[in-house]
User: Fold this.
Amino acid sequence: MTGGPHLVIRLVSVDKVYGTGQAAVQALRQVSLDVMSKDYVAIMGASGSGKSTLMNIIGCLDVPTAGKFLIDGIDTSSLDEHQLAVVRNRKIGFVFQSFNLIPRMTALRNVELPLSYAGVKPAERRLRAQAAMHLVGLADRMNYQPSQLSGGQQQRVAVARALVTAPALILADEPTGNLDSKASQDLMGVFDRLNAAGRTIVLITHEADVARHAKRVIQVQDGRIVADNRVTAPDALPPLLAPGGVPS
Amino acid sequence: MSPLQIFQFALAGLAANKLRSALTMLGILIGVGSVILLVAVGNGSSQSVQNAISSLGASSITVLHTEGSAAGSPTSSTTAFAEPQNLTVQDAQALASAQGVTAVSPVVSTSETLSNGGTSDSDVSLTGTYPTYLASQNDTLSAGAPFTMQQVDTARNVVILGSEAATDLFGTANPVGQSVLVAGTPFTVVGVLASKGSSGLVSADNTAIAPLTTVQDQLTGFGTLNNVVVQAKSSTLVDTVEGEITSILDERHHETAADADFEVLSASTVLSTASSTARTFTVLLGAVAAISLLVGGIGITNIMLVTVTERTREIGIRKAIGATPGVILAQFLTEATLLSVIGGILGVVAGVLGARFQIVGVQPVLVAFSIPLALGFSVLIGLIFGGLPANRAAGMRPADALRYE
Assistant:
């Protein structure tokens, strides 16, 4: 978000192995990847391809077995769990397939939560959370509980929660996986507009329809990157918002 | 992350499962309440025993007649052991000459049936003694007057009734001047004692007091006295007087300490025995209650482990959006401590309310330190027993926690 183009993600020869000995499973093999600011990347692959592992590492939810991972210039290999939590809080906004809102908390309180953990004062927290709710078009649903919202609305609350801390990266794991096609289109529209406003977005998906929104599509298979297609430049408009882009 | 915010999260966590939280608190409530109440019961019974004993008079000393150690094993007795002797009125008169003694009252006691024409009262404890006995027992009269020494010398059939014996026989009528049959012999009632209340199961008011000579003459015979009540000048002289009594009686009975046929008891010796018994009783009750507090604490661990497992996914979400392990630890520790502290406060209320009622005849007396102690323990229990589950929550790996279904 700050200044000119810079590296948001850098993976250098990342390996990830689960288990040990005979039971060891190599989920990632020598993955190297750079993502610049303002880019809009879709990571595609079948289940078991290693894309979820990749997302866990990019999201600082898990650490590589070997190799280096830098987010916004910070090398994560030397960080302990406390420091990783702070990095997740400041640098990354998560959107999950199953929404993952905290039940029995209003939409607005859910959006405020990352700011609470960041130590932001209540008054400012409220203002920023309200602004984020406006941005995803849910200004009239702030005091609803997650259970009172539709799937599409819940996912937009999750997007508001992801962007409220103004993170370097919005990381979405199968964000449309639990949504019908109408809600999916609405949500992708929100992502397109956020990217047009300068947010860096990484989407994990297996749907080609979703990947069409991205500026760059990466294919993962058997723990390796097998294709990396650039659609438009990182600082261009997202393909479906660009003149001549066909809205789905 | 402010402590207030963590507190709010913890409260919300508890509110999410109200019944479960309430039941867990109940465990602590019962534990803390029973610690406070049972310690109060122990304390109350010890105080009532102490009151009963000190009402006997702090400066009175009782000389009891015993069989002596030689009597128990006659075959092994040698000439070194003297035969146990009766405690006599002459012994009592000898004690009266000791220094620091103001009054000596020889006592015989027996249990008799008193009757008044139609109504009768059995098992009245009848004491035969001198008028000085009343003062050394802290007895006062609510009606009439005590019998005189002259009436003792002439063995008159007069009697002072205890308050319960008086109401049993005469109801609300004034018994003074009336006649009452003691074991079939008519006695004139000269006075009624003020009530002393009951100490435990035995009523101190179902009594009657008559001149020593009269009781010996008509009921017990002229054998040994049951005891001699010696009144010291002041409570500080009690120890000295006890020593004098022992040496006078040893000399008169040709006894040594090893085969004494009497025992000297003062209120203070009885008091120290009784209070050490009461202390044991209190500790025992407290220990039983502490065990129930421990069980309540294990209840907290149990329910917090269930909560942490149930909320694994929520913990994963919180971690993903930036909750540090410390914040998660604090949230779950606060939840556990809130459970134990709220339970503890309610337990204190229950214990204090419960202590207002008599429990198996004992009026509990709250021990002040038991309240902060029980509350402090309940905080500690929350921290200790909540520690394991909270630690488990804090140590969860976010990627695994998020995958948890």
User: Anything to note?
Assistant: The longest helix of chain B spans residues 267-310. Chain B has a mean pLDDT of 84. Residues 95 and 245 of chain B are 6 Å apart (CA to CA). The interface with chain A takes residues 1-2, 5, 12, 15-16, 313-314, 316-327, 397-399, 402 of chain B (CB under 8 Å).
